[in-house]
């Protein structure tokens, strides 16, 4: 018999660490010191961070897997919404291919359904695995690897200063103001703040004007050669900016590192930062036919999932859906959560929606919960899904109206790692 319960005892965490090290051998060192550090970190997180919860999967009183759950707050179209997250899903090597991971994720669903939370997110160890479990793709990330001189040099960097843990509140205030303006972003948890300031390899440079931090960069250096200690890359861990002035001063700082830094690694979800950089080429000199210069490498990561369609659409009652007037029937297919195979009649009048009990509607829409999760967040559009045969519309004359209804002017951004 299998049960999922919260990890409480020290021996439970010892067993969980052994499972984590086996599940992620490429990421974690298997030495006893590292295991002890991990155990202390996990126990400290569970005790001191109210947003973190560690759960284990037991079979016949033996721990065979576990996961870390997160309570987040996300900006959903300028409304702060609770959202559940999961990370560190790990299964004992002897119990692979026994559906243990699927069972953990199902408990993940149930735990947040009991909290009346309708929306979840995760970073997948395999996107295809979680796609089959109803998670839809989130925004892509673009990894640039450019020379420092590619960052524009502004007229000054006199407002820049180092931030330390004593300045933590200034950083949080700046970050929270950005979150309030950016759809999809999560508020920071205590563990995230600790990661920034407690890592001795990290530097934090901020642009401060009139006593207010208006932007900052957290970064570290990555050695590029064992024989040349002067050959390093600068790796941007986090770059937040409220104003063009803050962006330009921080860019000026990066530009000034040319004598010490080979290239700068910048991971961003902003699709058009190549308009900001002088030379976006990544140094490979690779050409994509006919003449497209290799620049950013893109990747799929964060994935979203609606676990209660009706509850999630209730959260959207305050949003204006682009002034559209339309009534449609929404058929949602969810192979994992039977209660989520829902049919909703959505009436929109000048962009304001409500749910109807009657069967009168203009058009019928059928979509899998994975694609719906991506669609409502604005990652993909109705027309794109239609051309890719990922959405069925009973009457194509309403395609443009549905496109406008679901269209999101600003794609979601999320820099929280978990």
TrEMBL record:
GO terms for molecular function: acyltransferase activity. InterPro entries: Acetyltransf_17, Acetyltransferase_Eis, Acyl_CoA_acyltransferase, Eis_dom, GNAT_dom, SCP2_sterol-bd_dom_sf. The keyword Coiled coil does not apply. Transmembrane segments: none annotated. This is GNAT family N-acetyltransferase. Keywords: Acyltransferase, Transferase. It comes from Lysinibacillus capsici. Residues 3-158 form the N-acetyltransferase domain. The lineage of its organism: Bacteria, Bacillati, Bacillota, Bacilli, Bacillales. Its EC number is 2.3.1.-. It comes from the Bacteria.
């Amino acid at each position: 018999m299998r049960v999922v319960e919260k990890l409480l005892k020290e021996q439970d965490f010892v067993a969980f660490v052994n499972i984590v090290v086996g599940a992620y051998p490429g990421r974690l060192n298997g030495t006893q010191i590292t295991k002890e550090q991990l155990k202390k970190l996990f126990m400290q997180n569970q005790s001191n961070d109210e947003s973190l919860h560690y759960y284990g999967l037991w079979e016949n009183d033996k721990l065979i897997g576990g996961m870390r759950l997160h309570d987040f707050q996300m900006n959903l179209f300028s409304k702060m919404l609770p959202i559940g997250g999961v990370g560190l899903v790990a299964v004992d090597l002897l119990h692979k291919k026994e559906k243990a991971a699927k069972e953990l994720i199902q408990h993940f669903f149930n735990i947040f359904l009991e909290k009346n939370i309708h929306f979840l997110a995760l970073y997948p160890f395999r996107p295809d695995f979680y796609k089959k479990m109803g998670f839809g793709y989130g925004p892509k990330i673009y990894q640039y690897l450019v020379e420092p001189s590619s960052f524009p040099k502004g007229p000054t960097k006199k407002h820049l200063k180092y931030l330390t843990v004593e300045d933590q509140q200034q950083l949080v205030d700046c970050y929270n103001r950005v979150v309030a303006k950016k759809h999809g972003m999560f508020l920071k948890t205590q563990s995230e703040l600790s990661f920034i300031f407690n890592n001795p390899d990290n530097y934090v440079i901020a642009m401060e004007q009139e006593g207010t931090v208006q932007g900052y960069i957290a970064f570290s250096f990555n050695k590029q050669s064992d024989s040349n200690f002067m050959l390093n890359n600068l790796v941007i861990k986090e770059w937040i900016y409220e104003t063009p002035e803050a962006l330009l001063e921080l860019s000026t700082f990066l530009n000034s590192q040319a004598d010490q830094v080979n290239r700068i690694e910048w991971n961003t979800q902003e699709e058009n930062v190549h308009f900001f950089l002088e030379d976006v080429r990544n140094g490979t000199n690779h050409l994509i036919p006919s003449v497209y210069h290799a620049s950013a490498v893109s990747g799929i990561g964060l994935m979203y999932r609606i676990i209660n369609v009706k509850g999630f659409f209730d959260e959207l009652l305050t949003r204006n859906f682009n002034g559209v007037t339309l009534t449609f029937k929404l058929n949602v297919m969810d192979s994992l959560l039977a209660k989520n195979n829902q049919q909703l009649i959505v009436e929109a009048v000048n962009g304001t929606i409500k749910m109807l009990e009657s069967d009168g509607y203009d058009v019928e829409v059928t979509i899998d919960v994975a694609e719906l999760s991506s669609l409502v967040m604005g990652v993909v559009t109705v027309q794109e899904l239609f051309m890719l045969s990922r959405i069925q519309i009973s009457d194509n004359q309403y395609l443009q109206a549905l496109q406008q209804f679901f269209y999101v002017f600003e794609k979601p951004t999320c820099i929280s790692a978990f």
